[in-house]
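Worked example

This section walks through a single chain of length 350. The input is the sequence exactly as stored; nothing has been trimmed or padded.
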Amino acid sequence: MSSYLQALLLLAYAAPVFSAGPLFTDVTQAAGIAFINQSGGADKQYIIETQSAGGGFWDYDRDGDRDLYVANDGHPNSLFRNDGGRFVNISLATGTAYSGNGRAQAGMGVTLADYDNDLQVDIVVTNFSQDHNTLYRNEGDSFFTDVTGRAGLASSSRPFMGWGTFFFDYDHDGWQDLFVANGHLMPAIERGGGGLRYRQRNLGDGRFRETANGPTLATERVSRGAANGDYDSDGDLDILVANLDDSPALLRNDVEDKGHWLLLTLRQGAIEAIGTHVHIQASGRHQMREVLTGSSFQAQSDTRLHFGLGTASEADIEITWPSGERQIFHAVSADHHYVIHRGVNRLISE
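Given that input, the structure is written out below as tokens.
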């Protein structure tokens, strides 16, 4: 038998057996998220076009199902509450549709995280140049407040067109910092005009301050997607940025004098536990993370949960799985990557 036929037979033998029914069903209309974007392309020539860019699922109201936030370009952003599989647009009622001065912005990327350690997930939306990125603080009563100005994020973001973004604790001080990848729609506008990425350090009092970027972050590139993860397994978070008409940039975290840390992998059987909440307490400070997918802009960050602990050498961990089941681990030693399986009261150090 020829090697070609052998290869065909092997592929046929190894091919998965699919059911006769559909693998996916379009439930957009039934789910209540069938809003329509308007293209301003040459064939239509709308004066104002509307489109959606970044978005992300997370359980904003902690009722056990995953809600959806979408950043829109040219019309109000959308927060869809998941009511048992049917989504209801509550963006106006929650203060997440417009900026604080009542304007619809040109949203691009989205990141979801608890930046102020009040155990509520907040929202950042990156926007078009000559406008600021927007930080919506979760007030905990189904309402968000635009705190961009008081957080120090307005003037620093205004010159740039923001895309991929995420919160991460790059220096392990226990406060999540903010990274934004910038780059204009028209590359020629951006080139020759200063650094295209910036990092904001969380000062721990509700404010951010732009850090000294150095030559790596100030490199002039037209950037789009951005993600973070510990690619070299040294306990800190590194950065990957996708660039237009250029190679991607892998930025290794070499920050000195970092604090202690924890890295957690959550598992339900053989799969990652999307939607799991983890609350830790270390030296009297509380932090919360949720296993998320699909935020930033056209990128996916490491789904392992990373915590900076500052000077604390151990932490208490409380895990709430999507099923509502809880597990608690006390006095967990810092500076380790742990794998935690639902229902198994043992930490596996890797």
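What to look for: Residues 3-14 form the longest helix (12 residues).
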